[in-house]
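Lab notebook, page 48
Experiment: co-folding of the full assembly
Goal: obtain a model of how the components sit together before planning crosslinking
Operator: M.T.
Materials (sequences as entered):
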Amino acid sequence: MKVLRHILQIDDEEDILVISKLALERYGGYAVTTCNDSAQALEVATRSEPDLILLDLMMLGQDGRALARQFAQSAVLSEVPIVFVTATVAPELRQALKSAGAAGVILKPFSPKELVAQVQAVWDQVAGTKSE
Amino acid sequence: MTAPSKTAGSGSFFARFNAVLLAGLVLLVLLGGLAVSSVDQLVASAEEENLAQGRLTAVEEFVGKLERVGATVTRYLVEGTPARNAEYVVGKDAALAAFEALTAKVATDPAQTERLTRINKLMRLRFIEQDRLVRLIGERAPLPPPPDSWPYDTLGPARSANLDQSLADLLQAVRAEEVKRIEARRAEVQVRARQTSSMIAWGGVIALLLVGSAAWFANRYQRRQARADAQLRASEERVKKLIDSVPGLISYVDRRQTMQYHNRAYRDFLGRPAGALDGKPYLEVVDTEVARVIEPYVARALAGESVNFERTQRNAQGVLRVLACAFTPDFGARGEVLGYYALLFDVTERRELERLKSDFVAMVSHELRTPLTSIVGALALARDSEDMDAQIASLLEIAARNSERLARLVNDVLDLEKIEAGKMEFHHRPIDLGDLLAQAAAANQPYAETLGVRVRVNPSEDKVLAHADADRAMQVLTNLISNACKASGRGQEVVLSSAISGQMGRVAVRDHGRGIPVEFQPLVFEKFAQSATAKPIAQFAAHKGTGLGLPICKVLIEHMGGTIGFRTQTEGDETGTVFFFELPLA
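Observation: model returned without errors.
Model output:
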């Protein structure tokens, strides 16, 4: 089973990026690349080749779902699991995201340790499914 | 309101009318009876008079015959014709027969009978005299010397005249008696006739009065009816205006689904002119799409069930409106359904407001969550640093605790909003309440320990299976346990138990704290009750919650068909509170 090493986090909130990066590095030991501009997200993702992408659902400019569709069409990124991060709690939205191919959904607000635990849980599930 | 008194009024009205009519009829019958008997007597009197007249005639006839016999004798004497002899015999027999007839008629009272006896005697004496005279004439014997005066008499003129006079006197007496009787009868008849005619006149007056009073009553009754009709029409008009002034759409549809009544709002909604709807089949009034939607509800209403539902329909301007509908069956006297009343309220604006509120709450919560994520994360990371100043650490601890509280508050507000908007999904299945308690105890033990409290499950004798959503039940239980821990003192125990209570499975969470102050008890399940009565709560729970925990528990439990409540003791040795909820058994 492949080990999760490199995470790309895309969010237009700089503060969230700083905190998440710190948490993921400190508690998960992952390498984290961040991107706060949805316009550059595809380019950054393609260049950095992450194992998993944490994607904010609602961003200025392009929203998370549109980006996810672009990633799915990219040759390099189509296999990379995408985990949405959102402050919206509507269960029907979560369900819609999952059926649209999201590997997981993490709700804001989260504590740093929770974030790491949830990311790892999603990874274990995805990697487990693939290796079976 | 006026109907009962009106009925009573017309009751006494008719009673009076009947009494008057009855009294009049009784009087008429009495008078009629009297008149009939009076007429009978009148007839009897007339007959009496008739008889008396007959008797008088018999007297005259007898007198006539008697005189004729006398005349025959005289002629015989003068003419000497033998035929007169035979005529005399016949005349005498006729006179005797007339006397017989007279006797038969007149011998009714002793005085007359006495007179007749004497007349008979005198008559016979006369006949003896006349017989002798006739015989002498027949024998051509010399007649006694011619009398000085007629009738020629063998007795001698004086005696003869005397005899005749006596006879005449007697006959006159008989005649006079009868005439007296006739006059008496006539007087009687006159009196009776006057009486009868006055009776008939009174009867006429009474009959007139009866007819008059009947007419008067009929007239009054008609006026009263007319007044009652006018009142009824006025009241109907008022009710109609009232119903027309209701902003809801009101209609009445009968058993055969014919529209019987509708108000102005209904007409206006459909944009139909007045009079275009009543008497029409209901399914023709509404369009086919609406008819299809409401059909099952109509069937239920006509089966005697009150139904409430919401649907959309385009109004006359083609704008889609949300209508809250209530169909209420109309029952007849024997409990049969005659039709149903449909009350429809346009709740479009209300629903729109609810949606806006819901959206607003969701939006605000979302906007709050994003900065909260940064604060919670930043604080957690900062506190996880080594070599920190103790004062800064304690300040960061305060900040972290409060940001978590804020996060919970946002979650609770959203939860409540979701439940109230009916957006929360429930997945009911049979859940073992014993297992639920064990899980909840284990999950909350770490938190309880931070307060020095122990959570213990009191084992149940029965396996209690409730029909509920496991996650929601756990959410409620967690909330109650957390409250119980906060209410407990260090070293105290929170006891969980489950049992079967009638048709329900019952869960209880007991603490041994100080109990809920009396003034706060009514507010326990109110939203934000904590902040509203901050002072008693500060004593009740040192650890503040969001103020939405118990209201959420209440709506969740009620959503699952259950009830929630508490018992509390604030005085004596055994203080503390038991919160309990009941869920339907599986």
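Interpretation: The first strand of chain B starts at residue 249 and ends at 254.
Next step: discuss with group before ordering constructs.
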